[in-house]
Amino acid sequence: MERFKHQFAEEPTVYVPAVFHEYSTQRVLTLEHVDAIKASRFDLLDEAGLDRVEIATRITDLVMKQVFVFGFFHGDPHPETFMCCRTT
Predict the structure, then answer these.
(1) HEC per residue, the chain
(2) Domain count for the chain
(3) Interatomic CA distance for residues 27 and 50, integer angstroms
(4) Which of 63, 57, 61 is CA-nearest to residue 81?
(5) Pseudo-torsion of CA 78, 85, 59, 80, nearest 10°?
(6) Global confidence as pTM
(7) pLDDT for 53-83, tens place per residue?
């Protein structure tokens, strides 16, 4: 997680929640709460006025950059790990 955060530190469209090491173990990862919408919740994305095509494009670009630029990728890609929020 920290490697991912470092790799995308200059990417304004990516936010990686903070890890609370003092509350984490080998089996439990404790993260900062981020108020956002799962990328799979199309109804909520539409309600929030977010562009689903833009979101899909950004997620795809993110994954491709991980693989082809960094040679390292997020090994647990599911809707809870791709959240969307309006920044403005």
Answers:
(1) CHHHHHHCCCCCCCCCCCECHHHCCCCCCCECCCCCEECCCHHHHHHCCCCHHHHHHHHHHHHHHHHHHHCCCCCCCCHHHCEECCCC
(2) 1
(3) 34
(4) 63
(5) -10
(6) 0.76
(7) 999 999 889 889 988 999 987 777 766 677 7
Token pair belonging to 82? 């791709």
Query: Is the separation of the CB atoms in 39 and 79 below 8 Å?
Result: yes
Residue 84 sits at φ, ψ, to 5 deg, of -125, 140
Which amino acid type is present at position 34?
A: V
Token reading at 43: 């109804």
Q: Which domain holds residue 16?
A: 2-84
* Average pLDDT of the residues of the chain: 86
Residue type at position 87: T
Residue 14 structure tokens: 């990516």
**What single-letter amino acid sits at 11?**
E
